[in-house]
Amino acid sequence: MGKALRLIMALLAVSGLLTGCGSTKGAEKVTETTPIQDLKAPKWVIKGSGAFSGQHGKVFYGVGSAAEMKNPSMLRIASEDRAIAALAKEIKVYTASLQKDYMESMTAGSANATSDSQLVESAIKTVTAMTLRGAQIVDHWQNPATGELLSLARVDIELFKNSFDQTNEIDQNVKEYIRKNAERLHEQLEQEEAKAKGRQ
To answer: What is the extent of the structural domain holding 15?
Structure first.
């Protein structure tokens, strides 16, 4: 009986050593140069900022990151602020395309083309600011190897369209155009970004 007990204890000890070695080996693999794909990062971390279609409908995402801050609260604030800034850049690209598309749809050579363009540009800036106020931080992820914190900001296209409806700076014709073409131009931007980033 004593020999059997000693044998069991010896086997448990060997098993513990092997498990410990396995854990150490796995930890050694995680370094500052470890690809985020190997760290089980969320898909949004890998994809980055952009226009996307999915379970939340048509959305704009902004991804921001911060690192090397000892204060966790400051790290989070910096990461979220950069995510909002990235989102703002994304919407700026989208609205520039929207404005260009609208002006091209107007009658060529119209005497009011320049003033119309300025009015639409001013309205778009107002709407963009309104839309960004409704932006949400929807996720965070921290790189276990570097401590870098990434934040994900989101705005859906419905909020953007609703912001246009609420402003009094543009006439009904422009609002109607936005309603009809906002999603089409979102799809175009999504396709262009997918090609540029190799997502297609």
So the answer is: 1-30
